Amino acid sequence: MGEDLLKARVAQLENYIMKKCLWQFHSRAWDREKQNEGILTKTMQILCGEPVEKESPADRCYWVDAVCLADAYKSKFDWISSLNTNEIKRVMQGLKERIDFVTISGSLNEELTVQQY
Predict the structure, then answer these.
(1) What does the annotation say about its assembly with partners (predicted)?
(2) How many domains would you assign to the chain?
């Protein structure tokens, strides 16, 4: 998969999250970091048919969002079913990097860094 195709696919998945997922709106940067890692890693594991950790309450919460996201991705983006495991992991890593940028490092929301939270 070339870089242009990777970017296009990441953009489609990002667009879905930005329009349909409320979990992206935590008010603290560290919450966003944990949720992005938890949800997107578990989504990748589901899409790859790998085991998903569900031991802690946070794991179960992220898992529920990941199940919904993986189901939506499979139903809305036919190309996902044509990818092998390595390609899925590459797309999901690109998506995580993009979501981290959009919701944390590139965000203009100054509340994310307020120390009193």
Answers:
(1) Hexamer of two alpha, two beta, and two delta chains.
(2) 1
Of residues 57, 79, 56, 71, the one with CA closest to residue 21: 71
pLDDT at res. 26? 72
Q: What b/e readout covers 85-108, taking b as 16+ CB neighbours within 10 angstroms? A: eebbbbbbebbbebbbebbbeeee
CA 111 – CA 75 distance, rounded (Å): 35
Q: What is the pTM of this model?
A: 0.91
* pLDDT less than 70: residues of the chain: 24, 108, 110, 113-117
User: What is the rounded radius of gyration, in angstroms, for the C-alpha atoms of the chain?
Assistant: 14
Quick check: 103 and 24 in contact, CB under 8 A? yes
- 28: Cβ contacts below 8 Å, ≥ 6 apart: 111, 112, 114, 117
Which residues constitute the domain of residue 49? 3-113
